[in-house]
Amino acid sequence: MKHMTKSKTSLRTLGFTKENKIWYADLPEFIENGLGTKANLMMVAGADTLLDILSGNTNKVSIIMSMVKFDGFTDTLMKTKDGLDKKYLDAIGHAPVDYGAYYKALERNHDLWLCPVTEYVFDGGYPDNIYLQILQAN
User: Fold this and answer.
1) Are the C-beta atoms of 130 and 115 separated by less than 8 Å?
2) Mean model confidence pLDDT for the chain
3) Strand, coil or helix: what is 19?
4) What is the spatial distance between Cα 80 and Cα 126, in angstroms, rounded to a whole number?
């Protein structure tokens, strides 16, 4: 499997696009490498609402993220617990998953859920904290 090697201190830029009122992570290599489908890349369960906020209610946003604090970060996602709401995920058409993790966006007092694609983005785990900065919204 080909994918970028990232150390704990590296910054990762990830784009998100809203199509038909649904946010998706822009990770074509995830699909190309046979790791899942577009339904795995859906941003749901509060992550979609956070993207609406971060994008200024537009349809596209790029975010710099890291597992460690960096100059200019504006938002902290703190892991609160493992789990998922299977009935909800099935109802909205998210790809089947067996686990996930809940986070709180501390600066915005907002709860959200992240699916196992998070492990792909952060090299195999759910970080205790994820630090974010909006790079561009449009």
Assistant:
1) no
2) 88
3) strand
4) 11
pLDDT in tens, 44-84: 999 999 999 999 999 999 999 999 999 999 999 999 999 99
| Amino acid letter, 87 | K
Domain boundaries, the chain: 12-137
Which parts of 1-138 are beta strand (E)? 12-19, 22-25, 42-43, 60-66, 75-82, 101-105, 110-114, 129-137
Which one, of 42, 54, 52, 37, lies nearest residue 115 by Cα?
42
Dist CA 3 CA 19 (whole Å):
25
- The pLDDT confidence band at residue 6, using thresholds 50, 70 and 90, is very low
Confidence of residue 9 (pLDDT cuts 50, 70, 90): low
Query: How do strand 12-19 and strand 22-25 relate by DSSP bridges?
Result: antiparallel
Q: Name residue 18's beta-bridge partners.
A: 23
Both tokens assigned to 45: 């369960």
CA 109 to chain centre: 17
Which helix (H) or strand (E) segment holds residue 117: the answer is helix 117-121
| pLDDT beyond 90 at 123 | no
